[in-house]
Design goal:
heterodimer, A: alpha+beta, Dna Ligase, domain 1, D-amino Acid Aminotransferase, Chain A, domain 1, 5 domains, 14% strand, globular, B: alpha+beta, 25% helix, 39% strand
Chain lengths: 752, 170
């Protein structure tokens, strides 16, 4: 070990406030130790240790390969998450060098072997006065033994490259490649209460107030938001209590958790730290007045840079296991059934029989219900999507597989609504295949009518045809009711069955191109589950099963919720259409534009107030500007980079699906190009010979369906729907994530 | 001696006695060990074509190995014609350092390696030099080529060219 670049320094031996070597957290803890505050004993693995690890293992090259494929600005957060997962997997697959293991072993001599340890991030620049990385990097608690410490250290290092860390650094304009991470290893201190103290009120630092929050048990219960704390506002000058707000806890007896002497000790400590550092800290602590231990101190984060609200919001989307379980129970047990029931109730309502006032009420009720569910969608359904990502990291940490996406096999065969719908579609296609009379009748009617034909008209005309099957009509009716009462591109799919009927004809004429992957016994959902359970051992079996179950439910419901909310949207549109028809018949509505949410208030008023003047529903005149070409003249794409989302190699012609009319144009063997495969269009997938999506991610539904069906898929292809045109010849390489456009000839050169 | 091989000047003074000069071999070895990427030169339908590839050489410099996706132009051309060159150099980005530039042109014949024992050996050679390319090299749609080197031409000082023929040595 180079004595000038030590890999390990005990906290009490760390001299100076060298952030560059020990990172923000460790250098502050060292300063606190030297100033006489009680801090749990421990050591710091320096940034040199991090550098030694990443350079030994050529990890930086792997990271550069991963992040160099696409500008971070062009990546959706799902893609950043994917990149982070692969980087994490690289960190986990590289063992610590002999030297590093020896350094950790040396450090562990500080503790009794049975002491549970906390392994915390201490990145350079973390928790400085300029910005806070609170919650961004990983901390792992309850770690015992060298092997577990080695694993935890690598995970903490890897968290420098987590999705949240990458996004946050991007927001702050920091270069992740220049970031370095030290690690603090400390003994865990158990106390009956813990909390956070702010030397000033973070909501208004000008006030002469300090804040103390406390929960029973360890501090992480508060930091992870698992327990509601008691909260005191303290006067900094007089040291008196300004207010006390008890936490909402089941076991709460409504008595303050802290005694006056505890409050005074905590306030005194946080103010002394403020004096030591010359900035106002937020301090995590544990214990009481006679045994107060400082866990960490960092500058209060009063503002979070927020250039892009969605990304900042994403940083909050990492609910802990307890929160995920709570979400699972609430979403699966209550919300999804309620959402489904709401859609069914609206569908069952006979709108034609209502008078105008009742119809106006129904429209408003539907609209309010839709707004309520859209809010729940953002507040609860989207955070629950983290269940699949949690399963990914849990599985990879325990099993350490070569393929970081091996866990996807655990999601196989979930009864998704879209899968149920596709199975009905396949049965209908099979019926058309085996009954040529019905198929001919459907084909003839489709040839006669444009896409705009209504199903009721189509059905009546179909019944008049020779050979028409009542069975087909009944089953298509059923399909409409169960699965097509959804909106797509601002239109109710069930109002326009033409595209789907065309898809059925296409499906009936050819065998599916999907070669269902034969799942090898070693890769079955059951086998992977067993592999995970054996890796975690009997003690953590229940925990592992919980994570698996949450992942599966998250995966299933995150598809179903889209369809169920789209059903509510469809039911809103249905009521608006009834209202529009009624007012039109009364001569009080004119114009032939598409009905949209923005017409709702007008129509409701028209129904309620007969004296309202003529209502006009016109689409705003929008002159179709020719789309500017993405590629300047003379320049053409030859090979596009994306993510290898489903393996395989195929060549075919492009069909872009950008709107509802495109759905019916899709022909077997074409390459499906779209922004993202939505739950409403997954039935096209078996017809496609390959898939290209703009939206990237290994865990988005299009990718997983393609993998299940064995169809090559490349996603995350920037501007795919703009660059690629219908009829372009492309080769989709789902192994390497490449899309090659056109043939590799020299025709042009030969003309010279 | 052909007069068309040198990097900068077709009238340079070449040294065909390179095979007996161990210094040339050693210079070539140093350069190919220092550099990671080569310009692969291929041809097809009367059209020459160049592309950058990551390479590795065998210890005896008798053959080189590189990989390319099967969807590329160079793959198609390599399947049509196996005669190739590899240009490896340490050119600077600044002008005016011409005299310090060192370059090697290696000529030879390429061969697609099918999966099997030789593939495992050749891919290992390439991956050990470029570990970050492991998943690329081993992907089903990536092809591995071995180039049997016929001749090396080593260029220094702008126009000084010497050749080395590996087979003359064995």
């Amino acid at each position: 070990m180079d004595p000038d670049r030590p890999l390990l320094i005990p906290l009490d031996a760390l001299r100076g406030a060298d952030d560059q070597i020990a990172g923000g957290k460790a250098s502050k803890l060292a300063q606190l130790t030297r100033a006489g505050f009680t801090v749990p004993k421990g050591f710091c693995l320096t940034t040199w240790a991090y550098e030694a690890f990443v350079s030994d293992a050529e990890i930086m090259t792997a990271i550069r390969m991963e992040l160099g494929r696409k500008s971070l600005d062009d990546m959706r957060w799902e893609e950043i998450w994917d990149a982070a997962l692969r980087i994490r997997s690289v960190f986990l697959s590289q063992p610590l060098s002999k030297q590093l293991r020896a350094a950790v072993a040396e450090g562990l001599k500080l503790f009794d072997p049975s002491t549970p340890l906390a392994i915390r991030s201490s990145a350079v620049g973390e928790d400085s006065a300029g910005h806070s990385f609170a919650g961004i990097h990983e901390s792992i608690i309850g770690v015992r033994g060298q092997r577990a410490v080695d694993d935890a250290v690598r995970l903490v290092w890897a968290s420098l490259w987590s999705d949240a860390a990458l996004l946050y650094r991007q927001e702050l304009g920091l270069d992740p490649a220049r970031s370095r991470m030290a690690v603090v290893v400390q003994a865990m201190v158990d106390a009956d209460c813990s909390g956070v103290a702010f030397a000033r009120d973070p909501r208004d630092t000008r006030k002469d107030h300090a804040i103390i929050e406390s929960v029973p048990g360890p501090c992480r219960l508060l930091v992870d938001g698992l327990v509601d704390p008691d909260r005191w506002v303290m006067n900094r000058e007089t040291r008196s209590v300004v207010s006390w707000l008890p936490g909402q806890r089941e076991d709460s007896d409504n008595k303050p958790l802290l005694e006056p002497q505890d409050l005074q000790a905590i306030l005194q400590t946080v103010l002394s730290i403020e004096q030591l550092f010359s900035w106002s800290p937020d301090m995590e602590w544990t214990g009481r007045s006679d045994s107060l231990t400082v866990l960490q101190a960092r500058p209060i984060a009063t503002t979070v840079p927020d250039d892009d609200e969605k990304r900042s919001w994403y940083l909050t989307l990492r609910p802990g296991d307890a929160r995920l379980k709570e979400l699972r129970q609430r979403i699966a047990g209550q919300l999804i059934p309620e959402l489904a029931a709401a859609g069914e109730a609206f569908a069952a309502e006979q709108l034609e029989g209502l008078d105008n006032l009742q119809l106006a009420d129904s429209i408003e009720k539907r609209s309010q219900s839709l707004a309520k569910w859209k809010k729940i969608y953002w507040d609860e359904f989207i955070p629950f999507a983290h269940g699949v990502r949690r399963l990914a990291t849990y599985y990879n940490d325990a099993v350490q597989p070569d393929d970081p996406y091996e866990f996807v096999g655990l999601l196989r065969d979930q009864p998704l609504l879209a899968a149920q719908r596709n199975s009905v579609i396949s049965e209908l296609a099979e019926q058309l295949r085996s009954n040529s009379a019905v198929r001919t009748a459907v084909e003839q009617l489709l040839a006669k009518h444009a896409n705009s034909i209504q199903w009721s008209t189509f059905r009546d005309q179909l019944r008049e045809r020779e050979g028409a099957s009542e069975e087909f009509v009944r089953r298509f009716d059923d399909l409409q009711d169960r699965f097509l009462d959804v909106t797509f591109d601002n239109e109710r799919l069930r109002d326009r069955p033409g595209p789907l009927l065309r898809n059925l004809i296409e499906l009936s004429q050819h065998a599916s191109l999907a070669e269902s992957h034969r799942v090898s016994p070693s890769n079955s959902s059951f086998a992977l589950q067993e592999k995970l359970l054996s890796a975690v051992g009997p003690e953590r079996r229940a925990e592992a099963m919980d994570v698996v179950e949450t992942g599966r439910v998250s995966w299933r419901l995150r598809d179903d919720d889209n369809l169920l909310v789209a059903r509510l949207d469809s039911q809103c549109l249905r009521a608006l259409k009834v209202a529009a028809k009624r007012l039109r018949e009364l001569g009080r509505l004119t114009g032939g534009g598409h009905l949209k949410d923005s017409h709702l208030a007008l129509l409701v008023r028209g129904l309620r107030e007969p004296s309202t003047g003529l209502i006009t529903v016109e689409d705003r005149l929008e002159f179709e500007e020719p789309k500017p070409s993405v590629t300047p003249q003379g320049q053409a794409p030859r090979q596009l980079i994306g993510q290898p989302a489903s393996p395989g190699l195929t060549t075919g012609v492009v069909r872009c699906i950008c709107g509802r009319d495109d759905l019916g144009k899709f022909r077997r063997g074409e390459i499906l190009v779209c922004d993202a495969i939505q739950p409403t269009m997954t039935h096209l997938v078996p017809l496609a010979s390959g898939i290209i999506e703009r939206r990237g991610g290994m865990l988005i539904h299009g990718a997983i369906i393609a993998r299940e069906l064995g169809i090559p898929c490349v996603n995350g292809v920037r501007e795919a729907t703009e660059i690629l045109r219908n009829g372009d010849l492309v080769t989709v390489d789902g192994h390497l994530g490449l899309v090659t456009v056109g043939a590799s000839d020299f025709e042009l050169e030969m003309q010279f | 001696m052909n007069a068309d091989e040198p990097l900068f000047d077709s009238n340079s003074n070449t040294d065909s006695g390179g095979a007996s000069n161990p210094a040339v071999r050693s210079l070539i070895e140093s350069l190919v060990n220092e550099q990671s990427y080569a310009v692969l030169c291929v041809q097809g339908g009367g059209q020459p074509y160049g592309a950058l590839v990551a390479f590795a050489f065998s210890g005896d410099l008798g053959h080189a190995v590189f990989a390319t996706p099967v969807t590329t132009r160079k793959y198609r051309l390599l399947r049509e014609c196996d005669r190739v060159s590899l240009v490896i150099d340490n050119r600077p980005t600044k002008a005016g350092e011409l005299m310090e530039v060192e370059a090697v042109t290696a000529t030879g014949r390429s061969q697609l390696i099918s999966r099997g024992r030789e593939f495992d050996q050749m891919s290992e050679l390439l991956i050990s030099r470029h570990p970050y390319l492991k998943s690329f090299v081993l992907a089903d749609t990536c092809a591995l080529f071995r180039v049997e080197i016929v001749r090396f031409l080593h260029v220094t000082r702008f126009q000084e060219v010497r050749q080395w023929i590996p087979t003359a040595h064995s």
